[in-house]
Amino acid sequence: MSDEPIVQFQGVTKSFGDLVVLDSFDLDVAPNEHISVIGPSGSGKSTLLRVLMTIERIDSGTIKVDGDYLWHMEREGRLVPANEAHLRKVRGKVGMVFQQFNLFPHMSALRNVTEAPIHVLGMAKEEATERAVELLNMVGLSDKMESFPAQLSGGQQQRVAIARALAMRPKVMMFDEVTSALDPELVGEVLGVMRTLATEHALTMIIVTHQMGFAREISDRICFIEGGRIVEQGPPDRIFSAPESERTRAFLKAVLEV
User: Which pLDDT band holds residue 1 (cuts at 50, 70, 90)?
Assistant: First the structure.
């Protein structure tokens, strides 16, 4: 892994009214590193993904993606708020898969995957289609390309959503509780696709999940977050077998018993 982080949070704060959701949050992510973010509900896990995707604006601090500031630009040696063109450029380096699939209901699986590359990246329709076919094959949906979302199971829709995010060629992929809206028997097929991405592709992955077994298997590092800060982080074997923080131990005991 390179010494230069591909994602860097420095002193990032985000509040909703009086509620501080990210509290001087610091995190460096190395290129091609797979990080799982765990913690109780309301701890700031999803918010850290949403500010990285520019869905939520930060209050203070800085975020860098692949060497570029996200919410700021450098002008005459100082940082100023980013304009929309700068935000679009840097945001293009990250992709996100949400809990809800957010597919276009009136478009086939294939068109859901080609739409953004054509209209956002300016990709030729033939190239976008070729790429979409390749990605839908990769996620095991070669026989569902012309199916509409209503004709697909939840797991199949989530796999289309993963293919759609990958079609934009992001350097960093984020997954926000992507199995939480699925029936239990469909969880495995989505985790299988993510496992393939982690093991067979050069891709930085930040995964917010309650699937502890999967997090332990797939991650280079586990970050336990509470109160908008990282309480403890480290290799999966140490975090799950011998956590140093009492709060981490209590959290893992509760979720693993469930």
Answer: very low
Range of the domain at 97: 32-44+93-257
- The count of domains in the chain is 1
Give dist(CA 94, CA 46) in Å, integer.
15
CATH of the domain at 171: 3.40.50.300
Q: What pLDDT is attached to residue 257?
A: 78
Q: Could you tell me if residue 66 is inside a domain?
A: no
User: What amino acid is encoded at 258 in this protein?
Assistant: V
* 229 domain-assigned: yes
Is 38 within 8 Å of 226 (Cβ atoms)? no
What letter does residue 44 receive in the DSSP assignment?
Answer: S
Residue 164 CA: distances (Å) to CA of 25, 77, 131, 155, 224: 30, 38, 10, 14, 29
Asked whether residue 252 is domain-assigned, the answer is: yes
In a domain, 25, yes or no: no
The pTM (predicted TM-score) of the whole model is 0.93
Q: Establish how many alpha carbons lie within 13 A of residue 206's alpha carbon, considering only the half-sphere containing its beta carbon.
A: 27
Burial 104-130 (b: 16+ CB within 10 A, else e): eeeebbbbbbbbbbbeeeebeeeebbe
- CB count within 10 Å of CB 143 equals 9
174: nearest Cα among 97, 99, 64? 97
Please state, in angstroms and rounded to a whole number, the distance separating the CA atoms of residues 182 and 66. Answer: 33
